[in-house]
Design goal:
- By secondary structure, the protein is of the alpha+beta class.
- The protein contains 3 helices and 4 strands.
- A 4-stranded antiparallel sheet has the order 1-2-3-4, with helices on one face.
- Strand 3 and strand 4 form a beta hairpin.
- It is globular.
- The model has no long low-confidence stretch (mean pLDDT 84).
Length: 96
């Protein structure tokens, strides 16, 4: 089994959306977003971030065997280039 990570690319946005919705459903108390509202929303602000490839905001994904997106972590820089916040982090239960 190989485990790799990279910033999620625009063509991986569908996989990102699926794991993001899973995270909201499994652990609603851990996120400020709501599962029901997120399901209805077709246009997420994160879609723009994935397309823009900004260095101060990005979503990294963990991929198993170069295929399955099994974890996500979103980061935003606080503007000083020395610190930032993790906005969302989730790893699927059945990774291994």
């Amino acid at each position: 089994m190989s485990i790799e990570y990279h910033n999620i690319l625009p063509n991986e946005s569908r996989a990102y959306r699926m794991i993001r919705l899973e995270s909201l459903k499994e652990f609603p108390e851990a996120f400020s977003a709501n599962y029901e509202e997120s399901v209805k929303s077709k246009n997420s602000g994160w879609k723009k971030i994935l397309k823009l490839k900004m260095s101060e905001r990005f979503v990294t994904g963990v991929f198993i065997d170069n295929f399955e997106l099994s974890g996500i972590c979103a980061f935003v820089n606080l503007g000083n280039n020395t610190s930032g916040n993790i906005l969302q982090m989730y790893v699927r239960k059945k990774v291994f």
